[in-house]
Specification:
Number of strands: 17
Bound molecules: 4'-deoxy-4'-aminopyridoxal-5'-phosphate
CATH superfamily of the largest domain: Type I PLP-dependent aspartate aminotransferase-like (Major domain)
Strand order of the largest sheet: 4-10-9-8-7-5-6
Largest sheet: 7 strands, mixed
CATH topology of the largest domain: Aspartate Aminotransferase, domain 2
CATH architecture of the largest domain: 3-Layer(aba) Sandwich
CATH class of the largest domain: Alpha Beta
Shape: globular
Oligomer: single chain
Structural class: alpha/beta
Distance between the termini: 45 Å
Number of domains: 2
C-alpha cells in the first residue's frame, strides 16, 4: 500500500479493527481497550484461519515424508523462511526458526559457550529485558567473561559517553535492545553498531533484541549491519511459539549448534555425527509448523499495510499521548518514564502514580475495559535500580488503537487518581 498522510492513516487504522475479532468484545460491560501490546499483540482473522487451515487440510511433518501432505506442509513452511528474509532484507539461509526471542537469544549464547573465554568482555545495557540479561549473565558466569553494563540516564536514554569507554579489544559481544519494553526508548542501534565495530576492530558480535521494534517499523538488517537480530512473531500479530534469529552468515558460522536431534544432522554413526548445513543445524526436532505458516500470513498482512505506515501511525499515537500526559504529570501526581522526544520514543509508556500501587492501577483500569500491564515488566534491574520503583504500570499501543481510545484512557487515569485520593476505590 502507498504511504498515507496523517489524516488518511487515522481513518485507515480506525477501520482495521474489524480484522481483529477479539477487539469486538466487552470486558466488565465496557468496550475492550487493549493496550498491553508490549506483552503480546492481537491477531487478525487471516492468521487465525491459517492455523485452522493447516490442521484441517494438510497437517503433516516437514522435511521428511515424500507424500503429498508432507510436501505441501514443507513447501508452505519453507516459503515463510523466504518471506521472513524479504521482510528484513536478509538471505533465506540467514533465518533460523526458534520459539521466540528468549529461545533465540539463548540459542546464540549457548552457541558461543566454546568461543567466549575468561577475560573476554560482554556488554549489555541496564535497560535489557531479562531475556537479554540473564542469558549473558549466565554465559559470563560459565566462561569467566566479564559482564559490563551501559548506563541508562535519567531521561531514559543510554549513556553514550560511558558506553564508548567500555569498549576495548576484549569486547566480544554487545547485546542490546532496539526498543526498551519499559521506557519505550528507541536506541540508535545503527550508530551503536558502527561505533562498536570500529572500536573493536570488527571482532565484537553485535546482537540486537528486536522484540519490541520488529512489528513497529521497517527493519533492514543489511543497513543496520548487525550480526544478529532476534524477534518473536507474537509481538507483530503472529502466533506465540515462533520466533526468528537472523544471523549474518559469517556470524552463524561462529556459533555451534546446542540442541541435538533429528533434522539438524547430516550423517549419524554410533560414535559420531555430522551436522546439517546452516540454518538447519540450528533447528533440531519437529518445528512449530502451524504457527510458522500462520506467521507467514502475518508477514503478508503487515507488508500489505506497509511497515512505514505502521511506523508513522505509531508516531501519531505517541505524539498525541505525550501531549496528553503533560497534564497528568503536572496536576495528578503521575510520573512517566523514558524519553519525551518523539524521535527517541516508541508507543510504550510506563508510569507510576503517587500513592497508588501499579497492581491496583491495572485492576481498576480492567474494570473500565482497559488492559494494561503492571509489575517489573521482566526488567527488574531497570525498575529497581534505575527507575527506583518496585513496579510500574505500562500502556503500549499498536496500530488498531485509536485517538478516541487515548482520550478514554486519559479520563479513566484521572478517575483512578481522584478516587484513590478520596479513598473511594472503584472495585
Ligand atoms: N526482549 C524484549 C525487549 C521483550 O519485550 C520481550 C517480551 N516482553 C522479550 C525480549 C522476550 O520475548 P519472548 O517472551 O517472546 O521470548
Amino acid at each position: 500500500m502507498k504511504q498515507l498522510s496523517n489524516q488518511e492513516l487515522i481513518k485507515y487504522f480506525k477501520k482495521i479493527r474489524k480484522d481483529f475479532p477479539i477487539l469486538k468484545q466487552k470486558v466488565h460491560g465496557k468496550k475492550l481497550v487493549y493496550v498491553d501490546n508490549g506483552a503480546t499483540a492481537q491477531k487478525p482473522q487471516v492468521m487465525i484461519d491459517s492455523i485452522s487451515d493447516y490442521y484441517s487440510k494438510y497437517n503433516s511433518n516437514v522435511h521428511r515424508g515424500l507424500h503429498t501432505l508432507s510436501e505441501k506442509a514443507t513447501s508452505e513452511y519453507e516459503k515463510v523462511r523466504t518471506k521472513t528474509a524479504n521482510f528484513i532484507n536478509a538471505k533465506e539461509e540467514e533465518i533460523i526458526f526458534t520459539s521466540g526471542t528468549t529461545a533465540g537469544l539463548n540459542l546464540i549464547a549457548n552457541g558461543l559457550l566454546d568461543k567466549i573465554k575468561k577475560d573476554d568482555e560482554i556488554i549489555i545495557s541496564e535497560m535489557e529485558h531479562h531475556a537479554n540479561l540473564v542469558t549473558w549473565q549466565q554465559l559470563a558466569l560459565k566462561t569467566g567473561a566479564k559482564l559490563k553494563y551501559v548506563k541508562v540516564l535519567q531521561n531514559g536514554e543510554l549513556d553514550f559517553k560511558q558506553a564508548e569507554s567500555l569498549l576495548n579489544k576484549k569486547t566480544k559481544i554487545l547485546a542490546i535492545t532496539h526498543i526498551s519494553n519499559v521506557l519505550g526508548t528507541i536506541n540508535p542501534i545503527k550508530k551503536i553498531i558502527e561505533i562498536v565495530k570500529r572500536k573493536t576492530n570488527h571482532k565484537c558480535l553485535t546482537i540486537i533484541d528486536g522484540a519490541q521494534s520488529i512489528g513497529h517499523m521497517p527493519i533492514d538488517v543489511k543497513k543496520l549491519d548487525c550480526d544478529f537480530f532476534v524477534f518473536s512473531a507474537h509481538k507483530m500479530c503472529g502466533p506465540t511459539g515462533i520466533g526468528i534469529v537472523y544471523g549474518k552468515y559469517s556470524a552463524l558460522e561462529k556459533i555451534t549448534p546446542s540442541i541435538y536431534g533429528g533434522d539438524m544432522i547430516l550423517e549419524v554413526e554410533f560414535e559420531k555425527s555430522s551436522f546439517n548445513k546452516i540454518p538447519f543445524c540450528f533447528e533440531a526436532g519437529t518445528p512449530n509448523i502451524a504457527d510458522t505458516i500462520a506467521f507467514g500470513t502475518v508477514i503478508d498482512y503487515l507488508s500489505n499495510i506497509g511497515m512505514k505506515n505502521i511506523e508513522h501511525y505509531d508516531k501519531i499515537l505517541t505524539k498525541y499521548f505525550l501531549d496528553e500526559i503533560k497534564d497528568l504529570e503536572k496536576n495528578y501526581g503521575f510520573h512517566f518514564y523514558g524519553p519525551k522526544a518523539i524521535s527517541k520514543k516508541s508507543a510504550v509508556f510506563s508510569f507510576t502514580i503517587d500513592g497508588v500501587h501499579s497492581h491496583d492501577i491495572s485492576t481498576i483500569l480492567d474494570k473500565f475495559g482497559i488492559a494494561v500491564r503492571g509489575g517489573h515488566h521482566c526488567a527488574m534491574p531497570l525498575t529497581n535500580s534505575v527507575m527506583k520503583v518496585v513496579a510500574s504500570s505500562r500502556i503500549s499501543f499498536y496500530f488498531y488503537n485509536t485517538i478516541s481510545e487515548i482520550d478514554y484512557i486519559i479520563n479513566c487515569l484521572k478517575k483512578v487518581k481522584s478516587e484513590f485520593d478520596k479513598g473511594e476505590f472503584l472495585f
